C-alpha cells in the first residue's frame, strides 16, 4: 500500500499479537517495523492528509483532530496491553520505511534507555477536585431572605469563609495523598491543575498528578486510591489508567519529521 508511514510508538520486540480488528489512523491496520533491538509500530496514511501544508490546515479542523487522536490512542492502548510502548507525538510521519529506520538508528540509544526505565510499568493519573458549591453547602443557611443588609453580608462572609476552609482542606488532603502515592510509585509527576472551562470537569482541580507504577503492583495502587475517595466530604478523587507512560518518556516522544 502506498502512502506515508505514520509512527505510533517505539517498543522492544514483542511476541504477543495485537487485536485482529485493530485499525489505526485513516483506517489502516498497524504493523511492526523492526530495526536492531527496536520495533516501530506504523501504518500507512494518505499523503494528501499528512504533508506539512495539509497538517497545518487540519489543525483548524477539530473533528479531524479528534478522530486522528482517537485512532492514535486506540493503537497505543492496544500496545500497552501487551508490552511497554514509548508513544511518539501525534502525526509523526515519514516518507517510507527507510525514513522510519533512520529515525530509530539516530535515536536508538535514547529509546533503549527510556524503554529500560519504563519496562513493566504503566502510568496512572490521579486528580483531586473541590466539588462545585462545596463551601456554600457547608455554610448553608435556613431558607428565607436575610432580615437586613447586615445579615446578608454576614451570610456572604460565612459562605466565603467556608469555601476558603474547604479549599485549604482540599490542598492538605491532596498533599498527603500525593506523598502516599509517590511512596508506592517508581516516579511521579505533578502537572498544572486543569482549567475547568477547558477540561469540562466539575469543580476546581487541586491535584493533577501522574504516577509510574509497576504492573504487578497496580492493583494495590488502585485499591489505595479507592480507599481515599470517601475520606473528605466536598472533595472528589478521580483515577485514570493504566496508560502508556507519557509523563515519564522525557523528550523521547518528540516528533521526528521525515516526510
Explain this structure to me?
- The chain has 259 residues and is α+β, with helices and mostly antiparallel strands.
- Helices cover 41% and strands 23% of the residues.
- The strands form two sheets. Strands 1, 2, 3, 4 and 5 form a five-stranded antiparallel sheet that branches. A four-stranded antiparallel sheet has the order 7-8-6-9, covered by helices on one side.
- The chain is globular.
Number of strand elements = 9
Give the overall average pLDDT.
85
| Amount of beta strand | 15-25%
Gap from first CA to last CA? 16 Å
Share of residues in helices: 40-55%
How many strands, what sense, and barrel or not for the largest sheet? 5 strands, antiparallel
Q: Could you list the spans in which at least 5 consecutive residues all have pLDDT below 50?
A: 134-143
Please state the oligomeric state of the protein chains shown. single chain
Silhouette:
globular
Can you write the helix and strand succession as a string? EEEHHHEEHHEHHEHEHE
Strand pairing plus helix content: what structural class?
Answer: alpha+beta
- The count of helical stretches stands at 9
> How large, in whole angstroms, is the Cα Rg?
23 Å
Amino acid at each position: 500500500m502506498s502512502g506515508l508511514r505514520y509512527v505510533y510508538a517505539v517498543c522492544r520486540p514483542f511476541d504477543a499479537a495485537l487485536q485482529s480488528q485493530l485499525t489505526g489512523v485513516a483506517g489502516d491496520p498497524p504493523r511492526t517495523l523492526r530495526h536492531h533491538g527496536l520495533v516501530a509500530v506504523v501504518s500507512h496514511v494518505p499523503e494528501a492528509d499528512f504533508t506539512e501544508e495539509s497538517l497545518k490546515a487540519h489543525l483548524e479542523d477539530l473533528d479531524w483532530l479528534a478522530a486522528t487522536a482517537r485512532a492514535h490512542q486506540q493503537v497505543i492502548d492496544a500496545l500497552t496491553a501487551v508490552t511497554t510502548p514509548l508513544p511518539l507525538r501525534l502525526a509523526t510521519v515519514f516518507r517510507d520505511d527507510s525514513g522510519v529506520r533512520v529515525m530509530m538508528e539516530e535515536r536508538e540509544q535514547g529509546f533503549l534507555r527510556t524503554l529500560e526505565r519504563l519496562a513493566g510499568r504503566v502510568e496512572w493519573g490521579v486528580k483531586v477536585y473541590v466539588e462545585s458549591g462545596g463551601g456554600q453547602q457547608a455554610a448553608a443557611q435556613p431558607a428565607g431572605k436575610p432580615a437586613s443588609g447586615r445579615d446578608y453580608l454576614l451570610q456572604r462572609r460565612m459562605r466565603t469563609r467556608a469555601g476558603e476552609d474547604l479549599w485549604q482542606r482540599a490542598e492538605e488532603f491532596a498533599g498527603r495523598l500525593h506523598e502516599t502515592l509517590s511512596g508506592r510509585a517508581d516516579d511521579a509527576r505533578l502537572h498544572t491543575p486543569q482549567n475547568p472551562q477547558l477540561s469540562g470537569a466539575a469543580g476546581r482541580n487541586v491535584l493533577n498528578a501522574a504516577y509510574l507504577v509497576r504492573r504487578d503492583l497496580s492493583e494495590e495502587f488502585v485499591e489505595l486510591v479507592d480507599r481515599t475517595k470517601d475520606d473528605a466530604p466536598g472533595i472528589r478523587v478521580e483515577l485514570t489508567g493504566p496508560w502508556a507512560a507519557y509523563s515519564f518518556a522525557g523528550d523521547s516522544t518528540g516528533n521526528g519529521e521525515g516526510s
